[in-house]
Structure prediction request, 580 residues.
Amino acid sequence: MPALLTNALRLITRTSIVVAAVLSASAGAAFGQAAPVPVGNLTMLASSDIDFLDPGHTYYTFGEMVTLATNRPLYSFKPDDALHPVPDLAADQPLISADQKTVTVTIRPGIRYAPPVNREVTSADVKYAFERFFSANVGGQYPGYFSVIKGAPSRPTRGARSISGIATPDARTIVFSLKRRSGVSFATALVMPITVPVPAEYAKPFDAHNPSTYNTHVAFTGPYMVQNTPSGSLSGYRSGKSIQLVRNPNWDAATDYRPAYLTSILIRTDAADSAASARQVAAGRDLLLDTNPPTTVLRQVRAAAPTLLSTVQSGGFRYFSLNTQVKPFNDINVRKAVMAGFDRMAARRARGGEDVGDIATHFLPPDLPGFAEAGGYDGFPDIDYFNKTNESGNRALAAKYLKKAGYKSGKYKGGRRLLLVGANTDPGKAQIEVAASQLRKLGFKVRLRLVPQDEVYTDWCQVPAKKVAMCAAGWFKDFADPQSMLEPVFKGSLISRRGGNINYSMFDDRKVDAAMDAASVTSGDERLRRWAAIDKMLIGHAAAIPFLWDKTTLLHAPNVASVPNPYVALWDLSFTSITP
Prediction:
């Protein structure tokens, strides 16, 4: 997930004292003021649906945007600072023990669930949120950060099981006991949706189903909620069509830093023609576009009405996965050939040109901790098939590696047809079409599958059984640390063959996994050096093709006082308002 970054990011990896200070900074001194009178009904046009409304299952920036408007994790980010998380559901910074094996969090009083639950949130609700996350019925998608908790399941459980390393000595205190000295990195991960409270007495009947049906019965704690029935069924969620957000009548502005200016928010998830949607937003009223406008519209708006655009650093990378368990990508020389011959400049042009980001030479993006240690913009000059000198591709070098793989002509001659999956709307559609063209030039036969953006992940790339050879994907930091950029995407031990798999390249190397384990318990400069070395290992293994360090350009209607949130590189719906 994305963020706006500065050199201050280094601080979060240095000591537990700095983590505590960072989390307490700007923790909401304005709490206690009266909520503004809500005005206006906003509509967002989106070309695809949310992945999940269930905070235990969502792991997609669009889902995080909705979660941050409707629910309250332990810590979250204000829209003016994606570096320093502030206490949200938590009352204060986490207390990290001297040995970094215990993290204690106090819950803020006075936060109540929306109807039909209505009661005050307790620490037990956070404990249950963690326990259900590991259930196969819920399908939590980033267990790596939290597997360090004592007693955390090593594989999905049947139903929510008690975790011995999570204690709730009273209704406002939750204590995490860890297996290793990793309290610093664990504390930084407490911004994730797993920390959103879930009331067990209400959710357990839904979680008993496989898959859980809590996704259409979520209990909300934020300023907004998905419109529901008296029984809690989310009547405001129409899959593939719309999400209707209304005010949470139990939300108390005195407990929150969010102003929540709007009366309601309608997210249309069926606006499939992104170019038409972008033009409608630019010429309309009370409208937002969900993400980057297509290239042609972006250029038109920038020329005619640049004040309608907001650009944020995403703190992430766009890439093409190379499924290492699908022939011929199981041959490292074939993968190196594809990387050598790949025209990253063409892929960037397909997404919108220089407006959408810088050409990537490795994975860790600019200003993230470890970026400089990983060679900065130059990357790794000693890796000939992927560095700054061949941003437009090097066909001769690609032929060299294909010859090493046994193809004497320097072109791939196998009869296998590779499955490529990407979005069916621009700019994602143009991006995967460029990749298909690049592969064909090297001799590969491809089968291109274009699907709605949410299905790219949930129905295809995250399902190993589909044997997708290449996915057009993006990855954005979960928190301000290089671990969140590399571990979920490339750690072999986290591969899930049951679905919800994030390692689209199916990359599984024991030495890389061991290096990640060792780096995760370090801090300071040593931590940055270790993760930078892992970045180089991944390029050295040709695990995927990073082509862009992403920027997101967002579009709003003239009468919308829009506020982007660089943590998710999308709109902050709780800060956006409509002007008279």
Observations:
- The first strand starts at residue 41 and ends at 45.
- The chain has two domains: 7-266+557-578, 313-552.
- The CA atoms of residues 97 and 435 lie 49 Å apart.
